[in-house]
Amino acid sequence: MTTLAPNYHPLDIEIAHAEGAWVTDTAGVRYLDCLAGFSALNFGHRHPALVAAAHAQLDRLTLTSRAVGHELLDPFAQAVTSLTGTEMLLPMNTGAEAVETAIKAARKWGYDVRGVPADTATIVVAEGSFHGRTTTIVSFSSDAGARAGFGPYTPGFRIVPYGDAGALAAAIDETTVAVLLEPVQGEAGVIVPPEGYLAAVRETCNAQNVLLILDEIQSGLGRTGAILTQDLAGVRADLTTLGKALGGGIVPVSAVVGRADVLGGLTPGTHGSTFGGNPLACAVGIAVVELLRSGLFQERVAALAPVLAARTDQLLSSGHVQAVRQIGLWLGVDVNARTGREVSERMAANGVIAKETHDHTIRLAPPLCVTEEELHLMMDALALAVTP
User: Fold this and answer.
1) Most exposed among 8, 173, 240, 301, judged by the fewest C-beta atoms under 10 Å?
2) CA separation for the pair 32, 350 (Å, rounded)
3) CA-to-CA distance for 73 and 77, rounded, in angstroms?
4) Which is catalytic among the residues 33, 43, 244, 297?
5) Which helix (DSSP H) or strand (DSSP E) does residue 77 occupy?
6) For this structure, is 108 an active site residue?
């Protein structure tokens, strides 16, 4: 009997070594990693600059807790806020923690600034969203698998259809303190909203004096070809959650960035984290910012996205898939004759790692260091896997 809790159903692959876009299992078999840790490995496995930053910091200081300061905390905050065009940063560890932090900050702002009556704050969220697996977050999930069996559920959330700006506006009332959305829904299968949706939501939030929180934990930091996917829509959230790629695939690092008047409401004693903003995390996070500041990864996405788009058009015309959705180097594919699990297993048999989501959808997110040749290898394996 295994001693490991069965909360995952992984592919039958045990990774022993990895570099760049490639991993090698314990049997010596190499795979092209087109999952990339659900975008945590945007820069590939063991990027030399990130490994060097981690090694250097390991020899100096790894943890202080926030009971005292350390020399990298302010530089980390300055680096990330400068990169994202925001005013303030609150560091955490995981994506779910960042979302929980944003929820708390929004409620505090609603009570202290908007004057919403105590314990009545509501937040509008989207159907099909994925923001983590804590009890508060699964309380507003529409995924029965993530939600069922974990009640009683946290109140204060209103679910509206994703992409419907009118329904979202109608759900806002005098108790609403925030709207929480993904600019692109990742776990749902790379669902890209209609053009103008985010701009319309931003307008509504401005008109109603409601905060806009955008979860960029999967979509941010280069995945779609921009620092933040909201940049592509020409909007700026009041709060943005970051994670996954912020830790470079080396350590868990997350953060909420945004308006100082909102994050500043979390005063001493109201929120915290033992490991949030630790020196090792800050060292890696600063190195991640430097990689993105160079623009090289965004340029690679811009160059390869049309190649991926051409291959997805071919795939769709084959008749073996129902739909494809692509933004940057991020692809969701709804398959026909097979389950998503079967397709991911067939891809693994052809040397490519991908993973299903929601039964009949495959999600692909290759590292941003992927080459054009490797991208074709990924699409060749996908085409074979979906063919009856």
Assistant:
1) 8
2) 10
3) 6
4) 244
5) helix 73-84
6) no
